[in-house]
Every structure is written in C-alpha cells, then in structure tokens.
Amino acid sequence: MPQAADSPSRYVFLDYLRALAAWLVVWDHLGTILPGWLRLVFTPAQWVRDYVAGPLGVIQDFGWFGVAVFFLISGFIISDRACVESFREFAVKRLLRIYPMFIFAVLFAAAFVDVRDQVHPGSVLLNLTLANYLFVPQVALVGVAWTLFIEMVFYGLTAVTQFAKDSPHRIAINLVFVALVIWKRGILGGIFTPFAAYVAYMPVLVMGQTIYWWLARSRLSPAWGLGYLTAAFAVFLWGVRLIQPSYLPVTNSYLISVAYAVLLFLAVMRLRLPERRVIRFLADTSYSVYLLHGLVGSLVLFAVVKHAPLGVAIALAAAASLLAATVTQRFIETPANRLARRLTQRWRLPDTAG
Length: 354
Description:
By secondary structure, the protein is mainly alpha-helical. The chain has helices at residues 12-37, 43-56, 63-82, 87-112, 121-129, 146-160, 170-183, 185-188, 192-199, 202-216, 222-243, 254-269, 277-284, 286-304, 310-344.
C-alpha cells in the first residue's frame, strides 16, 4: 500500500516488505485466480499450495498474507508521518498519494475491462469515491480497491486524532473505534453494516502502528507494546468471528496469515538490509502494480493464453503489469507527490521523528 514518498529517514526494510507484499498479491491473482477462471492450473502455483502454503496454514495462495503485510506497513509508516505533519499537510499528502493513481485505475477499468454491464456514470462515481463499498450489491471496477477503503478509514481517523500526535496511546482510540463499530454493526443497519465489515480489518493496521510506537520510537514499554498487539489481535479475532466466521477455522484462517505477517515484519525490521536499486524500484512501483495487475494482467493473460502455454501467458501478464506500473508511477504518482510537497511546504512542521 502507499508509503509516504518524502520521508526524510527512509525505512529501508519497508522497501523489501512492500516489494514482497505487492508481488505476492500478483502471484495469487495471476498465478491462481485468473487461471482458475479459465479452468487451468499453473503447476508451480499448485506445488507451492501443496508443499508450502497448505502445510503452513496460509490461505489464498499468499494473497491475503501480502495484504496483511501491506496493512502492517501502512500502520507503521502513517504513524511516522502523522508525528511530523499538521492536519492539513497529512490530509493533502494522503489524498494526493492515493487518489490520482486510483482514479486512473478506475477509469482504465471502465474503459477497457470486460465489465460493460457494470459501467455507467453512477457506478464509476461510486468507485471513484470508494463509496461503492457501502452498498450491496457492490460493483467494484478495481478488485483490490476494498483495501483502499480500509486504508482511507484509518487515514481519516488518524487525521482527526492529530490532537494526540505525540501520544502512542492514540492506538487505544483506534481500537475503541473499531470495537464500537463492530459492536453496533447490526443496530444501525443500512450502509453501516458493510462499513463495519471493512473496518473490522483495521486492527491489522493498528498492529503496524503499535510496532512503530513500541520498537521504532521506543515510546511504549514491552508490557504496553505486547498489550496493544494482543488487544489488536483480539479485536480482529472478534470481528472475524462475528462478521466473517468462514475465515476462522484453521484450514481457512485469516488469523494465521496475520500472525505470520507480524512475525515477518518484526524479523525483517531487525535486519540490516542494504539499499538495492531493484528493491527500491519494486517498492516504488508497488502501489501501481497492486492496482493495475488485475486489470492489465487479465487483458494480457486472457489474450496470450489462447496462443501460448499458461506459464508464458502469466510471465507476459506480469511483465505487462510491471511496465504499466513503471509508466504510471513516473507520470502519475511522482508528479502527484511533487504537487503534494509544493502545496504543503508552508504547513510543514519541524521534523521531530525519531
């Protein structure tokens, strides 16, 4: 998921995690889901499922694991940026970080992807605002955008709690908010019910936020750090149990993948990883490739697989997705980030992040 592009102290380990998370999602979609729609099996993906993912209890061919890593990254880095940005600076930078690229992806899907019966001005507008996730049935032109809805809720809550920007205990505000939404999900009805279903994922971002305040900033004692991590995991478990119990059994568990994601995050965080140009490139294009691989990749895969082996079609689909991400990162994401910096230059506060 998007990371602040102008962090004065770049967390190198996050580059490795962002690159890994994005391409695990690509692996899931291009290697298993799209071939499955064609009733085809990609042998390497089946091997990984049988001998790696299955024995470890990792579901969705590492796709949900990749999303969980993304959520942890967002909780961590957004907490870092919120420490040194004013309300206006934080809001403007997040909007310009998320929306220009997302708007392009929605319009691309509306123009080129075979969902013609779902494309009309109303559905496009709902998708552009992410409001489509508040209505049932949902029309999602960009399949992965549900995660952006959760991100935006987290960003919004972070923005309105900037009065507590120097306190690690704003973690508690987030957990209380999520718990209240889950608790009241069936009472208010209407759009609040799907809203609660997505907010229930937010504790995974709070885990990343806890790791930031505990281990990166050293503002929490081990007791507080472990306590908040446990509380976030418990709220997530509660939400899954009440809203999506089918993802609770060991054979189909969201929680196992989240636990692995946290362990990986903590392990990589402690490594002294070198800056590598290829890793930086894959990290910088991770948001674009995350948004576009299902759109560009599906167009290429479905066209090529008619004339070439499945493995070749998947490789070309992945390459086309990376090419599209490279172009859009350069001509959409980078200019938008520069605009955000120019607009917010006079609002920037002295950098006190540690």
